[in-house]
């Protein structure tokens, strides 16, 4: 029999039992809708994570100190050797002699001077604070680094503009390259410059939300004056809206000031800055992290720093999403199984009901292959109907789910996959009843009551 | 003399009842020439339906030989039998055996569709038969909307659609009233006159009398009358 004629018969049979087809396909409807929404929610979550991390480059590594240094005595003992040499593991960059000069020399000097970052001087401190010198050292000795910056954030009272009373805001002391490293774009004005930092000027850049709250809009904020800890700062620029981020300084609600200005007027030495560096190649983040640890361990023996790279944070966030997706996908598979078993049951009943018809077809010469194809196509037709309805249901449910602040990103691939899964389920579960129908003997089928 | 269409030699068939094999057909020898109109007359349980199933290639014999239009059926595999049923045999059943979901036309053209013909071509090919049987006005109806006589006409039209070598009728008037039964027998007479070979199974002597030749079957043994 021609396939087109078999399909005509399939259409004839299915179109006469519309209600039955719809009821049979309920399981597939649920399964397809679930698959489509699982993919859409998963993709939405991925995009959400990407958006939340968009203020970080994939190769960015944050270095912070969160603990206490070891005792001074222990450090002194640790430094009693030749002093200042680069760790043996650092052979990947620079010439050996240069390394020794570049690293060991200055270290000895600074140690003697008792200022800056020498290990001896560090050992005398109760708390360790990373500084600009540490950043310079890392940039000088760690290979494969693209850029680096140092920043801190504190809470400070803000007055001025439309604020009726002083309000606390996050004040971020940053270097001139912070905007570029954090993918921060400006809506108005310019970002802080090197001169601003060198001259410790009282200028600032407002986050989009901060600008709206203090001045009503970025237009009114620009070139206006805002008071941080009662000192006037000129607004040099307003950042574009960045949305929520999960790592680093939340840019929309922050006020950025030059790093040196912050140290002078806001924090003094009571600050714990964060050094952020970016690896030139994202693939080398692990190796770069290792080099940084070695440089830091040389500079601060026995001290543990926290190094976290954006990629790991993103990976962790995506990992959570993947687990959730897997869970939902497992649910969809169960729904499909239940739907498939439903289809199989209904097809068994259908074969039973149509045994006489099968007998007639076989008596007049219809082969096993044709019967198998017809019943299998009926199963595919039922499941395709269910899958299409499932996709429509998924589309209908999308705005409802979004009401619960869940980001749903529908995609053509998701639609096709849910249709494919639906049809596949129908075909797999429809095969056995179809096979059973095709294997009936004509005289047995004809005499069936 | 016309060629033999059916030749059955020493055919036996039995069914297992528990461990015991019960013989249904015993060493049957039977032949039908092309264009013959033969009635197989027998009471219920005589083995006539089993004989029809074997002649119709829907069942297989245990022993013996069966040739249909020169084809050795006893040596043919199941797939081959299916094809032979489509190409050489037209079935007319007591209970019409029409597919209720299909229209009259779809039922009639089904053997041709199975043969691989397109819907339109099959429809055109069947128009002469449809007109001969007088069911042209009922083509879009479903079998349930027809009377018993009309249904049997549709069944006959389907049997003729594929221009088979043999028309095999099992109690064709069994479910019909007397008037409709007479009409069907008259139609069989016309088909015989056209040259169709007909083998009709019946338990009714009056029906069998309409045939050109009659054989009886009793307890699995076939005898010429």
Written account of the structure:
The complex is a heterodimer of chains A (449) and B (225). Chain A is an alpha+beta fold and 449 residues long. Chain A folds into two domains: 3-53 and 315-446, no CATH class; 60-70 and 126-309, no CATH class. Chain A is built from 18 helices and ten strands. Chain A has helices spanning 3-15, 18-24, 26-52, 72-78, 96-113, 119-124, 132-141, 178-181, 194-198, 208-215, 218-221, 259-267, 285-299, 310-353, 355-363, 368-402, 412-438, 442-446; strands at residues 60-65, 145-159, 167-174, 186-189, 203-206, 225-228, 231-239, 254-258, 274-279, 305-309. In chain A, strands 2-3-8-5-7-6 form a six-stranded mixed β-barrel. In chain A, helix 16 packs antiparallel against helix 17. The longest helix of chain A has 44 residues, at 310-353. Chain A is elongated. The two termini of chain A are 27 Å apart. Residues 69-125 of chain A have low confidence and may be disordered. With 225 residues, chain B is of the alpha/beta class. Chain B has one domain: 3-Layer(aba) Sandwich (Rossmann fold), CATH 3.40.50. In chain B, 36% of the residues lie in helices and 29% in strands. Chain B contains seven helices and ten strands. Chain B has helices at residues 48-55, 78-88, 104-114, 119-133, 148-161, 178-194, 205-208; strands at 4-17, 20-33, 37-41, 63-68, 71-72, 89-92, 166-170, 197-202, 213-218, 221-224. In chain B, the strands form two sheets. In chain B, strands 6-7-8-3-9-10 form a six-stranded mixed β-sheet, sandwiched between helices. In chain B, a hairpin with a 2-residue loop joins strand 9 and strand 10 (221-224). In chain B, helix 3 (104-114) packs across helix 4. The radius of gyration of chain B is 17 Å and the shape is globular. The relative contact order of chain B is 0.20. The mean pLDDT of chain B is 91. Classes of the chains: A alpha+beta (449), B alpha/beta (225). The interface between A and B is medium-sized, with 25 and 31 residues.
């Amino acid at each position: 029999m021609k396939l087109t004629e078999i399909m005509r018969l399939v259409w004839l049979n299915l179109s006469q039992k519309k209600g039955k087809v719809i009821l049979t396909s309920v399981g597939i409807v649920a399964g397809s809708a679930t698959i489509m929404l699982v993919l859409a929610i998963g993709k939405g979550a991925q995009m959400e994570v990407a958006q939340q991390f968009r203020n970080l480059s994939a190769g960015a590594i944050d270095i912070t100190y969160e603990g206490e240094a070891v005792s001074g005595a222990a450090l002194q003992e640790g430094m009693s050797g030749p002093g200042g040499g680069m760790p043996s593991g650092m052979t990947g960059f620079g010439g050996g002699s240069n390394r020794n000069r570049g690293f060991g020399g200055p270290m000895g000097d600074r140690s003697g001077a008792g200022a800056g970052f020498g290990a001896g001087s560090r050992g005398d401190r109760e708390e360790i604070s990373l500084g600009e010198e540490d950043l310079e050292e890392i940039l000088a000795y760690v290979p494969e680094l693209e850029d680096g910056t140092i920043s801190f954030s504190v809470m400070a009272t803000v007055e001025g503009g439309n604020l009726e009373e002083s309000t606390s805001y996050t004040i971020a002391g940053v270097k001139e390259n912070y905007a570029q490293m954090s993918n921060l774009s400006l809506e108005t004005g310019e970002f802080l410059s090197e001169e601003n930092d060198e001259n410790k000027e009282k200028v600032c850049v407002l986050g989009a939300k901060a600008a709206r709250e203090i001045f009503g809009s970025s237009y009114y904020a620009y070139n206006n004056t805002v008071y941080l800890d009662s000192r006037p700062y000129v607004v040099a620029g307003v950042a574009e809206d960045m949305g929520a981020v999960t790592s680093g300084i939340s840019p929309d609600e922050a006020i950025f000031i030059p790093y040196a200005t912050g140290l002078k007027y806001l924090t003094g030495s009571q600050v714990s800055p964060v050094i952020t560096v970016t690896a030139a190649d994202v693939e080398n983040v692990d190796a770069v992290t290792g080099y940084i640890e070695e440089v830091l361990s040389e500079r601060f023996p026995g001290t543990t720093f926290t190094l976290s790279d954006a990629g790991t944070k993103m990976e962790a966030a995506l990992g959570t999403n993947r687990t959730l997706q897997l869970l939902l996908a497992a649910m969809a598979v169960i729904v499909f199984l239940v739907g498939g078993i439903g289809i199989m049951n209904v097809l068994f009943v259908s074969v039973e009901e149509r045994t006489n018809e099968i007998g007639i077809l076989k008596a007049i010469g219809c082969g096993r292959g044709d019967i198998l194809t017809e019943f299998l196509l009926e199963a595919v037709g039922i499941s395709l109907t269910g899958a299409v309805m499932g996709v429509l249901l998924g589309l209908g449910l999308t705005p409802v789910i979004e009401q619960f602040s869940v980001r749903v990103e529908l995609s053509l691939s998701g639609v096709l996959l849910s249709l494919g899964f639906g049809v596949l389920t129908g075909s797999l579960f429809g095969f056995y009843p179809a096979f059973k129908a095709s294997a009936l003997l004509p005289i047995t089928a004809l005499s069936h009551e | 003399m016309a060629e033999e269409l059916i030749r059955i030699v020493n055919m036996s068939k039995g069914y297992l009842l528990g461990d015991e094999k019960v013989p249904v057909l015993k060493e049957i020898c039977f032949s039908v020439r092309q264009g013959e109109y033969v009635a197989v007359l027998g009471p219920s349980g005589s083995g006539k339906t089993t004989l029809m199933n074997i002649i119709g290639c829907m069942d297989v014999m245990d022993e013996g030989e069966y040739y249909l239009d020169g084809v050795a059926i006893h040596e043919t595999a199941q797939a081959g039998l299916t094809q032979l049923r489509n190409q050489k045999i037209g079935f007319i059943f007591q209970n019409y055996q029409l597919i209720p979901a299909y229209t009259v036309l779809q039922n009639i053209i089904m053997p041709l569709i199975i043969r691989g013909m397109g819907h339109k071509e099959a429809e055109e090919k069947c128009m002469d038969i449809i007109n001969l049987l007088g069911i042209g006005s009922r083509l879009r109806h479903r079998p349930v909307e027809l009377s018993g006589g009309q249904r049997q006409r549709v069944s006959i039209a389907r049997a003729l659609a594929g221009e088979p070598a043999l028309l095999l009728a099992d109690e064709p008037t069994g479910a019909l009233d007397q008037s409709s039964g007479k009409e069907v027998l008259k139609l069989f007479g016309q088909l015989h006159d056209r040259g169709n070979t007909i083998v009709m199974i019946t338990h009714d002597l009056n029906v069998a009398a309409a045939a050109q030749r009659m054989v009886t079957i009793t307890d699995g043994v076939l005898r010429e009358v």
